[in-house]
Amino acid sequence: MNRIIIFLVLVGCLFGVPVHCLAASNPVEDVGRLMMEYYKDPRPDLVPDILNELLNSEVFTSGDIEENDSHYTSAYAFARMAQLEPSLLSEYLQIFENASDKGREFLLSVFKLCGDARVKQKLLEKSDNAVFAGIRTDLLKTVEGPFPVDFDPLTRKVEHPTDLDLLWTEFFISGNELAINKIIDTLDFPEILRPRIHQKLDEDDRGLINSKLIDLLSSELNVKIDPMTTKVLNQEDLDNLMVRELRNPRGDKDALRSLLKMLEVENADLFYMAIKGAAVWSLRSNARQHPAVMDICKNQVTSRRGRSKIVLLRILAQAVDLEDIIKSDVDVLDELVKLTPYDWKAIFLLGQVYLAIDDLELAQVQLEKLEEIDEDSYKMLLRKIEYHRLKLLSSPGDTEVDSSTELQSIIEQVVGEGGKLKSFATLTSVYSGDAAEQSIKQDLPDIQWEAEVIMPDRYSVMQTAREETGYVYDRWNTIGEDLYFQIGVWFKDESNFTGRSAENFMVSLAKWLDLLSEAVKNNLLDVTETADINYVFVRMDSVEINKILPEKYFEISGDSEVEIWIHKNARQIHKTVLYVDGVDSEGNTVRLKIVQLFTAYNSDISIEAPTEVFNLGSEKAKAAE
Length: 625
Hints:
- By secondary structure, the chain is α+β, with helices and mostly antiparallel strands.
- The protein has 28 helices and twelve strands.
- The longest helix has 23 residues, at 267-289.
């Protein structure tokens, strides 16, 4: 247990760039901005004021800056700025005069790194001054030793998180690419886990340990073992896979502890692994924020081999813009997938990239790979491929079903089949933005209905809605003229049946059938039918929204568009998508996507009245009396 706690403290608190943490977690934002942006636009004239701000800040006076050795990297940052602009030394000496003893101790650390003979003489002169009596011992120790010390992060061996911090600080102050290159070097440090795994599997003649170990490696780290050679097939750094899962709040910590115990991983091993993990995390994070870091990763990926190359490829992959694919994006992901054939995220992204450039054949290849390794991502990519095919089929120049006779026939069949249905189930989801994966904004309602309907008089609904007041849960049955709803217990509502049953409009199939009938009369339909997929695709623009979406939940503005997916063989509506501009609580226009899925049945679904029911109407009447 202790080893896991120690490790999580390390990766959660120590790692990264303390300069970043300073800017993100305390009020001295100017210090953080100065240190992170200095290499872009050096402004030594701002440094003295910001140094004063740091020394007088709560994070400094409280000692928080010393909690994870941030004072070392901060001292190096100010010293490095003075090395690049020696005039700052005079400013630092002036600040030293009026600083607190804690501030003077910090400045002594700075002077020890960047001071010269003049600074040394000035400090010696102060050693007999009573004003500096509180730091006299530290002052003399500083000037009597090597001054300045011979200190260069670029030549130090990376053995501690602070060594990584100092390299990042060097880059952010000076822009020296060698600092990033050295961080990348850590990605090729020897692995702890791989040789331990091989040793355990080779030693286990009876195969009892093998089975459990292999299962844990597969389920927790997605590590695959060759059954013939019992060697790890994954090429990426296994230590980093472990670090990533230990930092994952949704990871199975008990399973990870078991895995670490089986491989006899000690505290020192975890510390070593965590340093490599910190290098990966910091590179990924800073590449997202700093184009210069991303450019260095791009330049380095061609010359690197092995595990460092895989990390760099993943960093480049995170920058892929599906709206603006370039050839290098395809090359990066293709190489990454070849090196990491069990990385479902990389395969899924490559599949999306091929869709973005309309290469359905290669997208299908990625889909087949996913089918073997990850069911959820396989289903997601399958839906995207199917939808992409439909969009391509409905684009200008494709063969469309434009015969009025055939169009009328299609709609008549759809409406006719819909009317024959004895029951159906439906799920409605609301999203903000164009992507179905994007969750609704907090200030817009997020509504889902799961319903089963038996025409014409039986209806069952389970509803959840997230509105400004929080989650609303509701469930009700309609049987003939009787309505039962459940909030913990079942109630029979005899007082306001029509108001509540009006909600049925949102999940009804009839509104879409009516819309189809009306649209065909007014030539609003854009219909595509193909032998390659199982759907007829219908698109309509400028639909009257009040025919589909109650304004009770949305304030509607702007244009609208409807897509209706009709199952080709059954001639039944399978899916509907409504795009519409809605207005949020701040008056901003937000593109809404309302998706409704239908599953039809041709046999009755039995909906029985609840056995224990409170008569709500009677209770209200008694209350009124």
